[in-house]
Design a protein that fits this description.
Layout lengths: L14 E9 L3 E8 L4 E8 L6 H17 L8 E6 L5 E6 L3 E2 H7 L4 H20 L2 E2 L8 E3 L5 E3 L6 E2 L19 H4 L7 H17 L14 H10 L12 H10 L11 H14 L12 H5 L23 H11 L5 H6 L6 H29 L1
Antiparallel strand pairs: 1-2, 2-3, 3-5, 4-5, 6-8, 7-10, 8-9
Helix pairs in contact: 2-5, 3-5, 3-8, 5-7, 7-8
């Protein structure tokens, strides 16, 4: 299949284009520099040809989910979501210069680094689950590395809501090497148990340098052959001398064919990984999970198909606020000309009386002076 050519970067107010970062099925990612505050950001832009009501709803859902969950330190931070001048929706996000996928392809990662990342990502997913959300595409390329070297989970573009009544989403999201057997068999589009499998398979990949059911002979790693091996779920040990049996057992349990035999939650999975750290003499990674009260507040509505766009403030013209605004805009301070014009006209009678009074006072003073002089003589 031919690789899709990247679209042109949009012109965005307050951002200066730098270079492309990557392309996906429905979106391209570009590096921009933001003017205020000054920083580099990754901007994910929908491809024009892919824009339709379903894709827009999915994109809006991703923006809402990331805005809600990015308070977690192990979920990539979103700064802004809007629509460009040419009509393409975009997300402005924290720029992460590396991914776990790029790292394991160079060489398998150290046990301590993998365990630390596992606890952090499990805590992020537990927070999402407590918010009644599933990620549904957990794999090494969706674990980014921040500029400070911390792993963060990204790309909630095919997330789904956990449904209490058992209803399933319509889209089956499959990154075959890291998908659970029940997802590949299309028995479910995603559950907490299937996400535990995907995280376990991701950690296995980082330690082994290849996905769990991948063979050295690339000809045997077609989608169908790989799916068949995943369906059997026959765990093969990583075989590294520095990977203890206890950690192998944790990963094997997380990738059990029977979902009921996997850890009951991401929190439980994280605690098992923390115990492995303790047994290896490593300080356990902090397990940061959002409070239940926060997670239950203001749930994200993934079915919201309402049109989105830049926010424009408006005021109802018949409201009291509009009336007050009108009064304040019609008022202006008085000018000197206004003050002179507003003085009352002088009355002729009043002017005559004032003049007579002044004359009497003047004659009185003059008489007093004359009598004073004659008395002196």
């Amino acid at each position: 299949m031919a690789r899709r050519q990247s679209s042109s970067p949009p012109v965005l107010p307050g951002f200066s284009y730098v270079r492309p970062l990557g392309s996906g099925g429905f979106a391209d990612v570009f590096l921009y520099e933001q003017d205020m505050p000054r920083r580099v950001v990754a901007i994910k832009v929908l491809v024009s040809d892919a824009i339709n009501p379903d894709v827009l709803r999915t994109f809006n859902g991703e923006a809402d989910i990331m805005a809600r969950l990015s308070a977690h330190p192990s979920i990539v931070t979103i700064y802004q979501a809007s629509i460009s001048a040419d009509g393409r929706p975009y997300l402005a996000m924290e720029y992460c210069p590396d991914t776990m996928s790029a790292r394991f392809k160079k060489a398998p990662l150290a046990v301590g680094e993998v365990l630390d990342a596992g606890v952090r990502i499990a805590a992020a997913l537990e927070t999402a689950h407590r918010s009644s959300l599933l990620h549904r595409d957990i794999k090494p390329s969706n674990v980014l590395i921040t500029s400070l070297g911390s792993p963060v989970l990204a790309d909630f573009g095919i997330a789904a809501a956990l449904s209490a009544d058992g209803d399933e989403a319509e889209v089956f999201a499959m990154s075959v090497p890291w998908s659970a057997p029940e997802v590949l068999a299309e028995k479910t589009t995603g559950t907490v148990a299937s996400e535990i499998w995907s995280l376990g398979a991701t950690l296995y990949t980082l330690l082994a340098g290849h996905s769990p059911f991948e063979l050295a002979d690339r000809a045997k790693n077609t989608r169908d052959l790989l799916s068949a091996r995943v369906a059997k779920a026959a765990y093969t040990k990583i075989g590294r001398h520095d990977v203890p049996e206890g950690l192998e057992a944790i990963l094997a349990r997380s990738m059990s064919k029977d979902p009921a035999k996997r850890p009951v939650s991401m929190y439980a999975f994280a605690e098992e990984l923390r115990m492995a750290q303790y047994q290896l003499g490593m300080p356990p990674t902090a397990l940061e999970v959002a409070a239940t009260e926060w997670a239950a507040a203001a749930p994200v509505n993934l079915a919201d198909a309402a049109a989105r766009g830049p926010v424009i403030s408006t005021v109802n013209k018949n409201s009291r606020r509009a009336a007050r605004a009108g009064q304040s805009s019609s008022f202006r301070p008085p000018r000197d000309d206004d003050a002179r014009d507003s003085r009352p006209a002088a009355s002729p009678v009043k002017a005559g009386l004032v003049g007579a009074g002044i004359a009497v006072v003047v004659l009185g003073i003059a008489g007093a002076v004359i009598f004073a002089v004659m008395g002196a003589l």
